[in-house]
């Protein structure tokens, strides 16, 4: 009967109560009401950061009502007037809302947001207590009050519920005014007073870096959910509040040495890999592209919003997967999947590998800002650069870590930090003997290497050599992984990929990561190598380093028809690029990878990307390997069916290559038949009929 709250799906101050079923017995309803009342009363021992008085009064009123409810239960009710049941049902509905409201007011990660929503929270308390009073008044009229003492308690609750003002407290109002004043100062480009920031944090009991960061993450989630609404009313205000908290996190806790260890523990979460998922799990069943805005329809299947909206707009009222007719075509945002996609592609400091996967990084984060947030970020960028240049060792490490967080997904934050000249001091941090400082600096540089001007500044300040040195000699494997990721983004510029390739230790360093044990390291190394291969001069470097036999050995050991690893797909992409040139194709053929390529492309469980890379690789091998390779492919009967499947259902690029390969195989067959026919005719010319 009691609907439990789920903090991962229910938004703050959204109170989704459910009315009891009409068929429920009165005794069950009363028992459930008592259980709800006990849950509400348990909040007496919890800390309320805002609306303290309103919460306390509400709990006391319901605690008093608990005596009345227990009296009803003790009378063993079996039947009652319909109006009595209706009143108790209304109390049950209201109690659920009160419970949700108390949960919100006591949430440790929503203190600032609840402070700024004090008016709305107070209005909820007022309305809910009035609703209880009205329900009790009607209940009294039908004679449900019990003995005189209980009746007096009920009357007392009604009077207090109607007379209590449930206004915003003076301290809450004062704290709200301070926050709004700081936001106004941000908008005017004025640095806020440190005392104002500390006063607000102290009032809310936010005493550590972690507590402040939890508030930031809550506001990020609320912003994304608000952005999904049609009105988007609070989006900019939420963004301003988040900027306020980030500014506090970076400036107020700068001297708190206890947080350095906590930060590194938190940093480890950047490397969390969802090993049970592949990129294909994030593709829309209609377009087969990575979903930017996943939504779920009534059948439970998830699609990208744009593609399923077009499907419905075309007059279709069925599920594209099951064909089931839909009574309702409402689209429900799949926020859990959206967070997974964001984590998979954006939030870990890794690199998106395939070109078609890079598009998701443009839409995986909600790009929203406000004037206050923009000005606060500019001030904060200057502050962090100052700390990098003149702070203590711990302060420099803290500044590097904050830069790492700020630049993870925000293009604007990257721009501000590049303009604030954060890159030179970050490069200096790469030679730090503190492993954490080096890792944080390298992660920040990785994020800034995604910015066009950031790439230029890194190269102009001698960053390529330092990044390659970190790739080879980084104090932590994470720093080496980030270095490979930075090389991937830097290699997107033609001149830079040439310079990177000419640094002697680049390819050996990437090979060292490939031989390591971390999946992120291997993926980043393969991505960097693929970027370098876009310059022809780098082909012989990777070939001479023994990359091809190493990748082939890995594919042979890792691939199975039942389980296809993403590293196998990435390795196929590199081999396909190498095979476009004659020396690369010969190296691939010499390594003996052709049988497993044929196994992968003819497998029914292969991923879309693996199929594309396999057909590209086979086409290059046919072109550069000649008739011997084509002859082997012709003798593989399942291959043609797989190629026709790619021709019909693959992407434009893979369909084109599949068509070209089919043409080569058909031409070889025709030529073979013609040669056989000619040979037969030649033999017949020597036969004489006597």
From TrEMBL:
<dbReference type="InterPro" id="IPR013083">
    <property type="entry name" value="Znf_RING/FYVE/PHD"/>
</dbReference>
<keyword id="KW-0808">Transferase</keyword>
<keyword id="KW-0677">Repeat</keyword>
<dbReference type="InterPro" id="IPR058678">
    <property type="entry name" value="ARM_PUB"/>
</dbReference>
<dbReference type="InterPro" id="IPR016024">
    <property type="entry name" value="ARM-type_fold"/>
</dbReference>
<dbReference type="Pfam" id="PF25598">
    <property type="entry name" value="ARM_PUB"/>
</dbReference>
<dbReference type="Pfam" id="PF04564">
    <property type="entry name" value="U-box"/>
</dbReference>
<dbReference type="GO" id="GO:0061630">
    <property type="term" value="F:ubiquitin protein ligase activity"/>
</dbReference>
<keyword id="KW-0833">Ubl conjugation pathway</keyword>
<feature type="domain" description="U-box">
    <location>
        <begin position="277"/>
        <end position="351"/>
    </location>
</feature>
<dbReference type="InterPro" id="IPR045210">
    <property type="entry name" value="RING-Ubox_PUB"/>
</dbReference>
<comment type="pathway">
    <text>Protein modification; protein ubiquitination.</text>
</comment>
<dbReference type="GO" id="GO:0005634">
    <property type="term" value="C:nucleus"/>
</dbReference>
<dbReference type="GO" id="GO:0005737">
    <property type="term" value="C:cytoplasm"/>
</dbReference>
<dbReference type="InterPro" id="IPR003613">
    <property type="entry name" value="Ubox_domain"/>
</dbReference>
<dbReference type="InterPro" id="IPR011989">
    <property type="entry name" value="ARM-like"/>
</dbReference>
<feature type="repeat" description="ARM">
    <location>
        <begin position="421"/>
        <end position="463"/>
    </location>
</feature>
<dbReference type="InterPro" id="IPR000225">
    <property type="entry name" value="Armadillo"/>
</dbReference>
<protein>
    <recommendedName>
        <fullName>RING-type E3 ubiquitin transferase</fullName>
        <ecNumber>2.3.2.27</ecNumber>
    </recommendedName>
</protein>
<dbReference type="GO" id="GO:0016567">
    <property type="term" value="P:protein ubiquitination"/>
</dbReference>
């Amino acid at each position: 009967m009691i609907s439990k709250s789920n903090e991962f799906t229910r938004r703050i101050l959204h109170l989704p109560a459910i009315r009891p079923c009409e068929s429920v017995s009165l005794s069950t309803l009363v028992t459930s009401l008592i259980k709800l009342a006990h849950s509400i009363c348990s909040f007496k021992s919890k800390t309320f950061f805002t609306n303290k008085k309103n919460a306390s009064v509400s709990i006391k009123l319901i605690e008093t009502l608990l005596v009345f409810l227990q009296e009803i239960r003790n009378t063993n009710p079996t039947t009652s007037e319909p109006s009595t049941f209706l009143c108790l049902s209304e109390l049950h509905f209201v109690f659920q809302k009160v419970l949700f409201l108390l949960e919100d007011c006591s949430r440790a990660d929503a203190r600032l947001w609840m402070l700024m929503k004090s008016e709305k929270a107070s209005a909820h308390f007022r309305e809910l207590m009035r609703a209880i009073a009205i329900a009790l008044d009607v209940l009294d009229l039908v004679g449900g009050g019990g003995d005189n003492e209980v009746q007096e308690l009920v009357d007392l609750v009604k009077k207090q519920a109607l007379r209590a003002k449930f206004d915003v407290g003076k301290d809450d109002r004062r704290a709200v005014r301070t926050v709004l004043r700081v936001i106004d100062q941000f908008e005017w480009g004025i640095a806020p007073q440190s005392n104002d920031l500390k006063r607000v944090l102290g009032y809310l009991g936010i005493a550590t870096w972690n507590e402040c960061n939890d508030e930031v993450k809550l506001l990020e989630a609320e912003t994304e959910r608000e952005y999904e609404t049609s009105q988007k009313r609070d989006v900019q205000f939420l963004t301003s509040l988040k900027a306020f908290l980030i500014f506090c996190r970076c400036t107020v806790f700068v001297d708190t040495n206890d947080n350095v260890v906590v930060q590194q523990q938190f940093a480890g979460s950047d490397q969390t890999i969802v090993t049970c998922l592949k990129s294909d799990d994030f593709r829309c069943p209609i377009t087969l592209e990575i979903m930017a805005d996943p939504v779920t329809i009534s059948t439970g299947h998830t699609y990208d919003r744009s593609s399923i909206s077009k499907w419905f707009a075309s007059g279709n009222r069925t599920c594209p997967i099951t064909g089931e007719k839909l009574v309702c075509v409402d689209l429900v945002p799949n926020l859990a999947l959206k967070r997974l996609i964001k984590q998979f592609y954006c939030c870990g400091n890794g690199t998106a590998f395939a070109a078609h996967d890079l598009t998701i990084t443009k839409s995986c984060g909600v790009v929203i800002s406000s004037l206050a947030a923009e000005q606060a970020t500019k001030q904060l960028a200057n502050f962090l650069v100052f700390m990098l240049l003149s702070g203590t060792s711990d302060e420099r490490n803290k500044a590097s870590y904050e830069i790492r967080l700020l630049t993870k997904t925000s293009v604007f934050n990257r721009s501000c930090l590049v303009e604030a000249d954060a890159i030179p001091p970050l490069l200096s941090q790469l030679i730090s003997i503190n492993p954490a400082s080096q890792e944080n600096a390298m992660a920040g540089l990785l994020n800034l290497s995604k910015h066009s001007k950031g790439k230029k500044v890194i190269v102009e300040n001698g960053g390529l050599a330092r990044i390659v040195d970190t790739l080879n000699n980084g104090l932590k494997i994470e720093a080496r992984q980030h270095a490979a990721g930075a090389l991937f983004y830097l290699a997107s510029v033609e001149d830079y990929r040439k310079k990177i390739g000419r640094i002697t230790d680049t390819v050996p360093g990437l090979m060292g990561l490939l031989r390591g044990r971390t999946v992120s390291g291997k993926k980043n190394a393969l991505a960097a190598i693929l970027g370098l291969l876009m310059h022809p001069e780098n082909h012989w470097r990777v070939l001479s380093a023994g990359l091809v036999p190493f990748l082939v050995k890995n594919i042979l050991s890792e691939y199975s028809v039942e389980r296809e690893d993403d590293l196998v797909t990435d390795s196929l992409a590199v081999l396909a690029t190498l095979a476009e040139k004659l020396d690369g194709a010969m190296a691939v053929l010499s390594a003996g990878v052709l049988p497993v390529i044929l196994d992968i492309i003819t497998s029914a469980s292969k991923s879309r990307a693996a199929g594309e890379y396999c057909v590209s690789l086979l086409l290059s091998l046919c072109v550069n390997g000649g008739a011997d390779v084509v002859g082997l492919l012709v003798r593989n009967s399942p291959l043609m069916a797989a190629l026709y499947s790619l021709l019909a259902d693959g992407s434009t690029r893979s369909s084109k290559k599949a068509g070209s390969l089919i043409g080569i195989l058909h031409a070889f067959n025709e030529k073979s038949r013609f040669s056989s026919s000619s040979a037969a005719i030649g033999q017949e010319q020597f036969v004489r009929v006597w």
